[in-house]
Amino acid sequence: MSEHAVAVPRRRLSKQERHTQLLAAARDLIRDSGTDEFTLARLADRAGVTKPLVYDHFGDRAGVLAALYREFEARQRETLAAALGGAGRELPAVAGLVAAAYIDCCLAEGRELADVVAALAGSTTLTLLRQEAEDAYLAMCREALEPLAGPIDAAALHAIIGAGDALTRGALAGRISAARARSTLARVVTAIATDDGHDTEEQTA
C-alpha cells in the first residue's frame, strides 16, 4: 500500500444541502449557548464556512432565527399530517393524535424554540410568521375535527394552541409529565370540538 494517501475531493453541497447544514449548526449553537451570543460569525465558524456564505443564505441574524422558526412549524405540520394519516373516525382518538403531535413536537425542540421566539419577540417578522404558521396548522386541525364534530369557530381553534403552549412549558419545566400534557390537551381538543356553545358568527360572516 502506498505511503502517500490519495486525497478524496470533497463533494460540493447543493444550496439546499448547505442551507440545511447551516440550520443544523445554528440549532446546535443555540442549544449550547442560547441566542444572546448567537452571531453570523459564530455560525460560520461552527459550520466551517465563510461569513459571506452565511449572509448569502440568511441576510442577517434575524433571518437565521426566522428560518429556524419556519423549519419548526413545517416539522410540526408534517408530524400532525403523519399522525392523522392513520386516524380512525372516532373523535377521542383524533383529538388524542392532535394533542400528542403538538406536545411531542414542541418538546422535541426543547428550549431552543423558546430562545428563538424570545429573540424575535416584538418584531413584525415573528408576528407574521406566527400568524402564517397558526393559520396553516389550525386549518389542518379543522379539517380533521369538523367531519366528526361539526363546525368549530376560529376562537375555539386558537384555544388549542394556547393550551398546548402552556402545557408544553409546564412539561419543559418539569411541573407536569409529557403524558399528562398530552392527555390534558386531548381533553381540551375534545371539549372544544364538542362545545355546543360555538359562536357561529364567524362561520356565517
From TrEMBL:
Residues of the signal sequence? none
Sorted keywords for this record are: DNA-binding
Indicate whether Ribosomal protein appears among the record's keywords: no
Q: Which residues form the HTH tetR-type domain?
A: 16-76
Q: Mind telling me which InterPro entries this protein's record contains? A: Homeodomain-like_sf (IPR009057), HTH-type_TetR-like_transc_reg (IPR050109), HTH_TetR (IPR001647)
Q: Which residues bind DNA?
A: 39-58
Keyword GTP-binding recorded: no
What molecular functions are annotated in GO for this chain?
DNA-binding transcription factor activity; transcription cis-regulatory region binding
Report what the protein is called.
Answer: DNA-binding transcriptional regulator, AcrR family
Q: Which organism is it from?
A: Auraticoccus monumenti
